[in-house]
Amino acid sequence: RAIAMPILLSGSCADWTDVFTTVLESADQANETTTAAWLHLELGRQLLLTERTLEAHPHFEQAHRLAQQTEDRMLLFRATERLAYTHIVSGQFDIARTLATGAISLAPPGGVERALLFHTLGYLATQETEYATAIERYSVALHLREAAGATLSAAKTLRDIGVAYACLGDYERAKTAFDGALCDFAHFGDQY
To answer: What is the DSSP string of 157-183?
Structure first.
């Protein structure tokens, strides 16, 4: 990760996936399990950011498999949570629920990591049309994100709470959530 990121950020590589692939091969050859797992996790994350979820999934699977061979709980938590997310996107809700529920015991007690997990659980509930449950889970995520000062993440959570309320037909609460999200998003201007 420490090797790939400066190369990636410099823009000296035509395709950033080439950087990760090269560094991953080196980590695999050196039998660096933890490094390889973090690299798979980061490559999957970058693919998600470019809306290439199906391509990200195998990297999260590999990161999860490798993380289980280490003693790095944060690595295992992040790989498990992201793998759960890609299972939700692919419609494999039972697998996603099992992974996400298992990740709860791995999550740090507060902060953005736990918030991300509860947001993922909210997304799962939304996809299963369990909107009241989604609002409960999103609300936990929102509280944790606000407490951590993660304004942009909180805005995304408010947006998703608004969607869940709208799906329930509670348009007044949906509008309140959307207004809060827009207010938070406005602080980021053209960045978002």
So the answer is: HHHHHHHHHHHHT-HHHHHHHHHHHHH
- Give the length of the chain: 192
pLDDT digits (tens, 9 = 90+) for 164-178: 999 999 999 999 999
> Residue 97 corresponds to which tokens in the numbers above?
């629920």
Is 78 in contact with 48 (CB distance < 8 Å)? no
What is the rounded end-to-end Cα distance, in angstroms, of the chain? 26
Q: Locate tokens 């869940």: which residue?
A: 164
Q: What digits encode the pLDDT tens for the residues 71-110?
A: 999 999 999 999 999 999 999 999 999 999 999 999 988 8
Cα-to-chain-centroid distance, residue 88? 11
